[in-house]
Specification:
Blueprint (H helix, E strand, L loop, with lengths): L5 E3 L24 H7 L1 E7 L4 E9 L2 H15 L3 H13 L5 E9 L16 E5 L5 E2 L3 E4 L4 H7 L8 E7 L13 E7 L2 E7 L2
Parallel strand pairs: 1-10
Antiparallel strand pairs: 2-3, 3-4, 4-8, 5-6, 5-9, 7-8, 9-10
Helix pairs in contact: 2-3
Length: 199
């Protein structure tokens, strides 16, 4: 029996910019949204014998990402002063919920793009802590917003990709001042892809 290993993410070109893997809200609610989103985006590809089986982009919704997103949203809505501060405070409060990673998935066989089927999906998605412990998602739901909306928020969305929101329990201590890496592993009977965020 042939065993397929994980296709590890290999960076092309420059290394990803440094990121923070902490629970700490940034000192200011803002930042360059496009640059922050790119900094927290990781990409991977799984290939079969003759073609690409699956392509994955994952955007970790860190405190820095949430702050930049809140500031951009406030700007788009024309919020200033207390209204802008309230929007940022709401984004900060949402950090108390589950960890969230936006998954942008493209599969060669459209029937395999089924993460929203839970345990019935052909894929298994887990976070992996620094000790190698696998953490199951609370849920993975399809991001049903229009394609143009998703692409505006996540430029890594490909033409044939489907967006999902994967939520993981926050009671697992994955972030902190000493966190060295956060990994997401997506695998099936045919192989897998691993994405890694490192400060």
């Amino acid at each position: 029996m042939r065993v397929l290993g994980l296709a590890l993410l290999v960076a092309c070109g420059a290394a990803p910019p440094p990121i923070r893997l902490t629970e700490t809200w940034p000192q200011t609610c803002g930042g360059d949204y496009d640059a922050t989103t790119e900094a927290y985006t990781r990409r991977g590809t799984m290939r079969g014998e003759y073609q690409e089986v699956m392509s994955l982009a994952g955007i970790f919704k860190s405190p820095d990402w949430r702050a930049a997103h809140a500031a951009r949203d406030a700007e788009h809505r024309g919020l200033t002063g207390d209204a802008r501060a309230q929007a940022c405070a709401q984004a900060q409060a949402e950090m108390s919920g589950p960890y969230e990673i936006e998954l942008l998935v493209t599969t060669w066989d459209r029937r395999e793009n089924d993460l929203d089927r839970g345990k019935k999906s052909v894929w298994r998605v887990v976070l992996v802590d620094e000790q190698g412990k696998e953490i199951e998602p609370i849920e993975i739901v399809k991001d049903k917003r229009p394609t143009f909306t998703l692409r505006s928020e996540f430029p890594a969305l490909g033409d044939f990709a489907i967006g999902y929101v994967a939520r993981f329990p926050r009671d697992e201590a994955l972030l902190g001042p000493n966190a060295r890496a956060l990994k997401l592993r997506m695998s099936s009977e045919r192989g897998g892809v691993e994405l890694e965020w490192k400060p």
